[in-house]
Design brief:
mainly beta; globular; Jelly Rolls; 5-stranded antiparallel sheet; 6-stranded antiparallel sheet; 2 domains; 41% strand
Length: 326
């Protein structure tokens, strides 16, 4: 009798200890039932202080700051309840890495969904990073675990840059999940609008800011688009309406180098909004086409006292079309 009572007391003590330890609460596949993890495709999750990321952060995150939230471990997890989908979806995360060149030039980030690796990002300066999540990982919907593995996370104290002992990897500003309407498939002659909610995100790979009402800015030095094309028998013509980040009289234009599958196809000087064209030779075109906009002299409105906007901007794109060359 006495030994049975002791065993019961021991079991009760263990159960209480587990409850106080919060057993399982940090596991993204075991969501806290008191938290609403519901997400609707296309919504923006803000990781800034006062944003709504607290509904999705599961483990490995520091406290939100005015600009965003840092991961503070070699792994950071989110728990997101996604609706059912019959097509793949795209993860779009606005991030920067905790870097300290030359020793730590970037942060490699391994991205997992429900334990399956979907991307490897090399995160340095603030940009939008993208990953396709296969439909079978979402299926009928439900809470998914979204895990960022950041093996190079390191504290500022270890780098000697401050007394901060948090093991920082990435700072997340915003995150969205959008449906892949056709897996980046593109019908020649279709105009892609870059305003908010117009669908340009499915073609964006990296280097893009968030979409605004009528356009999307490139950030930093390189912005990339990717297209799956129908089989083409000849050259293509790229048409785009752009405007440059300028500050007269110091910065009158933004020089832009345009590349198609690694080949330079145009050198533009962009100031006020203008319609521009570039020919894409047939010998560089495959069923997969990558377009890059390289801006060597982007500027920050904050630096020039134009506004509090600290983004480093190159050009804003209003719309873009690929078509067979005349």
């Amino acid at each position: 009798m006495g030994s049975s009572l002791c065993r019961l007391r021991f079991a009760a003590i263990c159960a209480i200890a587990l409850l106080h330890a919060g057993c399982g609460q940090d596991r993204p596949d075991l969501p806290n039932p008191s938290v609403d993890h519901t997400y609707h495709y296309g919504e923006t999750i803000s990781f800034a202080r006062g944003g709504d990321s607290h509904r999705f952060r599961a483990s490995g995150w520091s406290d939100p700051e005015p600009g965003g939230t840092w991961s503070d471990s070699t792994a950071a997890s989110l728990a997101i309840r996604l609706p059912a989908t019959e097509v793949p979806v795209r993860l779009l995360a606005r991030l920067r890495g905790h870097v300290h060149p030359p020793g730590v030039p970037s942060q490699p980030v391994h991205v997992y969904v429900r334990g399956e690796k979907v991307a490897l990002w090399d995160v340095a300066k603030m940009s939008v990073y993208s990953a396709v999540i296969p439909q079978e990982l979402i299926g009928g919907g439900g809470v998914i675990s979204l895990d960022f593995h950041i093996p190079g996370a390191v504290s500022p104290a270890a780098l000697g840059t401050s007394s901060d002992h948090r093991r920082l990897g990435i700072e997340c500003r915003e995150l969205r999940v959008v449906k892949e309407t056709n897996g980046r498939g593109y019908d020649l002659g279709t105009t892609i609008e870059f305003g908010a909610g117009k669908g340009a995100e499915q073609y964006q790979v990296s280097g893009w800011s968030h979409a605004e009402a009528e356009f999307t800015w490139t950030e930093d030095h390189v912005a990339t688009l990717h297209f799956q094309l129908p089989q083409s028998q000849g050259p293509l013509l790229l048409r785009a309406r752009l405007a440059g980040a300028t500050h007269p009289p110091q910065v009158m234009i933004q020089p832009v180098e345009v590349l198609a599958n690694g080949t330079t196809i145009a050198q533009w000087e962009v100031g006020d909004p203008a319609d521009l064209e570039a020919s894409i030779p047939a010998d560089v075109i495959t069923e997969s086409l990558t377009i890059e906009f390289r801006t060597p002299n982007p500027l920050s409105p904050q630096t020039f006292g134009q506004s509090a906007d600290s983004r480093v901007l190159g050009v804003c794109v209003f719309h873009l079309t690929l078509d067979t060359a005349p």
